[in-house]
Predict the structure.
Amino acid sequence: MKKILFLSLALSLAVFGAEALSGEVQKQPLNISAIIMFLVFVAGTLGITYWAAKRTKTAKDFYTAGGGITGFQNGLAIAGDYMSAASFLGISALVYGAGFDGLIYSIGFLVGWPLILFLVSERLRNLGKYTFADVVAYRLQQIPIRTLAAAGSITTVIIYLIAQMVGAGKLIQLLFGLPYSWAVIIVGTLMVLYVTFGGMLATTWVQIIKAVLLLAGASFIALAVLMQFNFSFEGLFANAVSIHPKHDAIMSPGGLVPDAFSAISLGLGLMLGTAGLPHILMRFFTVADAKEARKSVFVATGFIGYFYILTFIIGFGAIVMVLNNPQYLDVAKQAAEGGAPILGGNNMAAIHLSHAVGGNFFLGFISAVAFATILAVVSGLTLAGASAISHDLYANVFMRGKIDEANEMRISKIATIALGVIAIFLGIVFEKQNIAFMVGLAFAIAASANFPVLFLAMFWKKLTTRGAVIGGALGLTTAIVLVILSPIVWVDVFKNAEAIFPSKYPALISVTVAFAAIWFFSITDKSETAAEEIEAFDAQNIRSQTGIGAEGASSH
Amino acid sequence: MKQDMVKQILSNPKYQELVSKRSKFAWTLSIVILVVYYAFVLVIAFDPALLGAKIGDGVISVGIPVGMGIIVLSFILTGVYVRRANSEFEALTQDIKNSLK
């Protein structure tokens, strides 16, 4: 019965999708090779989902792929989760527009990883089962902690999802000529299929395949660019400097980080936010033990670092081959605003470059890869959100831990479908909104609500439930309030003249508030439960250090 | 975990060795990457021209190899940690587990 349902869903989607694709008026001429590659990718990943569905029988399978993912596979999947369309297109766009500033962002995103390895990954794997809330709630009271952690997770996930869905809709509209809402519905439907039927196993393999395709495609572009200059970086940069309107200024830091506060705050937000993203943290439970967890971070750091080097080269390649190239010039926009705007905006720089180095076929490939990238990331986000709802909220808060596996799995699938519907709805609602602040907000919340509580739960003996709940909640609220009062929302979205909170980067304040509040409300907690929690730290610490008593992998 | 097992492990010299060696190592490496990264970030905030200075008479600025260097350093540091953790610390952990049998 399940087989028939699945197949008919998949088939109707393919037919439905093909119908919608063929008959629309487009912004771009119909790109046949792109559409074919997109359909091939969709067919392939639905096939993987079907294979994964047969292997996903228990809750452990659903949430962690049975714990049988190897360190290398997980590293590649984590890298895939991290190398989103936003980083591929967004960072290349930043390098294209401002040169060196793009590298500052990349480095900020990367340096969180060594810290995750040294301080978080093995302890997380030793202490937790399915979600990071397992780790935080280990010796503390389940109900308040799970509620807080789930709130932090779900908030981060939904905000991140909106940003991804809107980005996906716009990108697909531009690349395939689909109407925006169709694009959002297709992305939402596919992601629900992957997660509901294939769980973490399907999500992981979709992520791995997309990572390989993206790295291969980006490497090809970078190589093609360098070959133009006989592999001389000096040649590439000299050419870029002469073409770019800012000339030499692109070789040094520009206005991205205008002062010390912004510099430190941005850095802190990126570093700690990475260690607080629920869909990233979830990946650490898919490996067999702490040893494999460490290997995953090593592999992920390598691939992500390599990827950021590539996006740097790609940005400069775009300056040389796309800027001022009449083929990619947006003539209408130029007439209205001057300058040399490219079709689709700066975010399309990497896409146009792929056309410049590899023609229509390669453009099709990269477009399909960009679409794959979005799909993989939203699937991971949805799974993280669904697990927070079913494992943290439903199983541990609502049902007080008394739930059988089959029920928990059913709730997870319902939660996934619900999240998919919400994501599609919000994606459509936010179409015209300026959502650029959303990824930054997601990172700020992850850094201020999720990370401090997780970190102190693992390292600090005197942490109590009261401290964690009040401190975590304060961190979450501060981050949200400061972002709303900052230029990126108060001025850009609400159209006020001046922002109440002058900086775009609230992390330094919200993270400090979180740590200070957690500390204060923990040490002033003299209740009996607090004493028990402090007492229980030693046993927790032993498990986090050695893995004695930790969740193992499934037998199959 | 039962209280007597907790006491037994806590008093095991191998456990104390594992915890102190790993703490020192992890925090040392963390401080290295934090200092390197925040030095980079503060130079950008206070003296960006330092990173914009040219190397030789070409167009490439100091900032580019510095930036690339930080990326490579991050990767190397993770490798350093994993190599020691997956050999020495894993061996210590195994000793501790064996002593419980």
